[in-house]
Design a protein that fits this description.
Helix content of chain A: 25-40%
Number of strands of chain A: 5
Oligomer: homodimer
Shape of chain A: globular
Largest sheet of chain A: 2 strands, antiparallel
Distance between the termini of chain A: 23 Å
Largest interface: A-B, 102 and 102 residues
Strand order of the largest sheet of chain A: 1-2
Strand content of chain A: 15-25%
Radius of gyration of chain A: 20 Å
Order of helices and strands of chain A: HHHHEEHHEEE
Structural class of chain A: alpha+beta
DNA sequence: TTGGCTGAGTCTGTCAAGCGGACTTATCCT
DNA sequence: AGGATAAGTCCGCTTGACAGACTCAGCCAA
């Protein structure tokens, strides 16, 4: 069973959706930045201090996230101060919520703290806790074990490296 | 509206579930490794070639994932070869499926390829496409915009740095 | 009008990590 | 004995992270 070649070996990883997504998110700091924005912290200094990011790295990550369309700069002005910019999630950024929630859910299960979770995603309307579920188009809600990743229409055969 | 201090500023990031989860997953290569395991590729060389990871980095990441309990080593023997080890997901590893699926879903929406997706998560039983949905305990299925991350029982007040 | 404060950066030197390529080890087959 | 192969280890180079100092623009108070 373990000896036969897995089907995936026939397919290229070149255009894989996960790779392409990780080119945007796959970095130690990017998720910390996103977390701050998701909890409502939007200003450079606040993000930097709370997330503990080196300034230079934060500058660079914010620029990258803006360029990728996950954030936009938004002017604001505190009374008696000059105009500055804060960073806000675009719709594309907001739509990462399921990823965040899935990560929180996993962390709560496998890295639990005594006394419960420090952060909880909640439905604004009703206040109940929000979680993420897998669901197929036929309406089933499969366990992880019942899901398989299959090639789609643009799967490319793998260049046969010897 | 944007001037008032966001509630999150009162809370420490120190024990945040996202941070703790990112300490395990938050690395350029870890998700690539997990992807290979999720699609069924389990052997060192296969993972290395498909994911394009430097050997040394792969060695180190596999060890870390084993130590964190997401993988285990499993002996196998090809006919006419000596015994070797392959890497398999534990239940903890498998339970990252929602994170993976959420990332694929986001990528398919915001980084689409002409002609459709290269990989598709499917329900093994019925073959239908699997996606991830947000759901609250009252049974609503909120949009991203209707979800908020709130402090939980172990939220810690932030040490007031001046 | 000068001087200080503040948020949001930029600059600089150090040091760890990633990287490709060569080398190693253990076992099997011929 | 010689060769093949999977799974590493070793080496030197380069890239990026990092801490800490410096800059810049606009506002305020004296």
């Amino acid at each position: 069973m373990s000896a036969q070649v897995p089907e995936a070996m026939n397919w290229s990883t070149e255009n894989c959706t996960i790779s392409r997504t990780m080119q945007i998110l796959g970095d130690k700091w990017t998720f910390h930045v996103l977390r701050e924005l998701f909890v409502g912290v939007r200003r450079f200094e606040d993000i930097r201090v709370r997330a503990g990011i080196p300034r230079q790295v934060l500058t660079e990550r914010l620029a990258a996230l803006i360029e990728r369309g996950l954030l936009r700069r938004h002017p604001y002005r505190l009374p008696g101060q000059r105009e500055r910019y804060e960073y806000r999630l675009t719709q594309a950024g907001l739509d990462l919520y399921p990823v965040l929630v899935a990560m929180i859910q996993w962390g709560d299960q496998y890295l639990p703290l005594d006394g419960g979770p420090p952060i909880v995603p909640r439905h604004r309307d009703c206040g109940e806790q929000v979680s993420v579920v897998l669901r197929c188009e036929a309406g089933h809600e499969p366990e992880a074990r019942e899901v398989a990743i299959r090639p789609g229409p643009t799967a490319k055969p793998r260049p046969l490296a010897s």
